[in-house]
Amino acid sequence: MSDLKNFIVTGESKIKIRDYMTKPKDGISKEKIIKKTNLNLEKMESFQDKLYSEGKEGLVLIFQAMDAAGKDSTIKNVMSGLNPQGIDVYSFKQPSLEESAHSFMWRAAKKFPVRGKMAIFNRSYYEDVLVVKVHKLYENAKMPERCKHGDVIARRYEDIRNFEKYQYNNGYRIIKFFLNVSKEEQKKRFLERIDLKIKNWKFSASDVKERAYWDEYMKAYEMAINATAAKNSPWYIIPADKKWYARYLVSEAIVDVFKKIAPQYPTLPQSAQDNLHKDKELLLNEK
Question: Which neighbouring-strand residues pair with 62?
Answer without folding.
Answer: 121, 176
